[in-house]
Specification:
This protein is an alpha/beta fold. It has two domains: 121 residues, Serine Threonine Protein Phosphatase 5, Tetratricopeptide repeat (Alpha Horseshoe), CATH 1.25.40.10; 179 residues, Vaccinia Virus protein VP39 (Rossmann fold). Helix content is 48%, strand content 17%. The chain has 14 helices and eleven strands. Strands 3-2-1-4-5-11-8 form a seven-stranded mixed beta sheet, sandwiched between helices. A two-stranded antiparallel ribbon has the order 6-7. Strand 2, helix 11 and strand 3 form a beta-alpha-beta unit. Helix 4 packs antiparallel against helix 5. The longest helix has 15 residues. Bound molecules: S-adenosylmethionine.
């Protein structure tokens, strides 16, 4: 269990928790029985009971999502698609993640399938366990990879103003505090930001979406932009790269990790609902934004089921 990527598991649990409070006592009871059947290895009976629960509470988005997951488990692809679509109709902000599941099934474009509401909810749930599960159980080393990549290009002068995109609980801030006079962090999850705030390494922390945050930064206002293990939640990075180039001073550096794939597409949405990017895709976005590749090499940021996930670490220079 510990080597499974936890945000997805926790999102499912969160959906279950929300689903348990449908507002209808009979539906709740049926759903609770359904989960017992599911835990006991009988997804068909669980699906039947969730269907009955949805007769009582038809506007219950999390119930439809749970039914979609059960349909997928049962190999009922078409039913799964219908139930995810129903969840999305009932909850257009898509906190539960029906869009990502539809994209995984090829029923929605992959880009934008992970909504900000979904990511915020995922990490609000994950925050209390994040460092223990990611660092200890999944051998996470995203911040260390950023440091090594930067050290590798021989930069010794301290940075004046760094931005940490998707700062989470502040592990990157901790790793870079001695190199930077001033670090500003941004993240969608309030619970992750609260953990980062407690570390007292950031001058400022903002709860915002990365692209929105970058649009609001003045041109030539940062000399370092960092992002560790965040682009697994973003498909097309063209806007981020262009905005990073605008915000960086000349000579400023953009250092990040991605999960990688070797196919022809610039990015894909993996089965585990994380995006993977190709070298060619990153190089293309960098060139289009006027950023020079200083370093782009294989580096695995963490393990999955005990196996290192394929990844890349990049240093781009404006
Ligand atoms: C796997 S964690 C990594 C956190 C941190 N960078 C680290 O290395 O420990 C990914 C973080 O990115 C944030 N995130 C993902 N997509 C985001 C977006 N579009 N805008 C802002 N934050 C985002 C999540 O809320 C989460 O805290």
């Amino acid at each position: 269990m510990t080597s499974i990527f936890l945000p997805q598991v926790l999102a499912y649990r969160r959906a279950m928790l929300k689903a348990r409070s449908s507002g209808n006592a009979l539906a709740d009871r049926r759903f609770a029985y359904a989960m017992e059947y599911k835990a006991g290895g009988d997804p068909a009976s669980a699906a039947e009971l969730v269907t009955q629960a949805l007769h009582e509470a038809p506007d219950w988005a999390a119930g439809w999502l749970a039914l979609g997951d059960l349909n997928e488990m049962l190999g009922r692809r078409d039913e799964a698609i219908d139930t995810y679509r129903q969840a999305l109709r009932l909850d257009p902000a898509d906190e539960a993640g029906a869009g990502a599941r539809l994209a995984r099934l090829g029923e929605m474009p992959p880009d934008g399938a992970m909504t900000p509401a979904h990511i915020a909810a995922l990490f609000d749930e994950y925050a209390p366990r994040f460092e223990r599960s990611l660092v200890a159980d999944l051998s996470y080393r995203g911040p260390a990879l950023l440091r090594m990549a930067l050290d590798g290009i021989g930069r010794s002068k301290p940075f004046e103003r760094a931005l940490d995109l998707g700062c989470g609980t502040g592990l990157v801030g901790e790793a870079f505090r001695t190199l930077c006079q001033d670090i500003v962090g941004v993240d969608l999850s309030g619970a992750m930001l609260a953990k980062a705030r407690a570390k007292q390494v950031y001058r400022q922390l903002e709860q915002a979406e990365i692209a929105d945050f970058l649009f609001r930064q003045a041109a030539d206002s940062a000399d370092l932009i960092l992002s560790a293990d965040v682009f697994i939640y973003l498909g097309d990075l063209e806007t981020i790269f262009r905005q990073a180039a605008r915000v960086l001073v000349r000579g400023g550096l953009f250092v990040f990790t991605v999960q990688s794939h070797s196919g022809p597409a610039a990015f894909i949405l993996n089965h585990d609902l994380r995006y993977a990017h190709s070298r060619e895709g990153l190089a293309g976005w960098a060139a289009a934004a006027g950023l020079h590749l200083r370093h782009l090499d294989h580096a695995s940021p963490r393990t999955d089921r005990g196996v290192p996930v394929p990844g890349l670490v990049a240093v781009l220079e404006r």
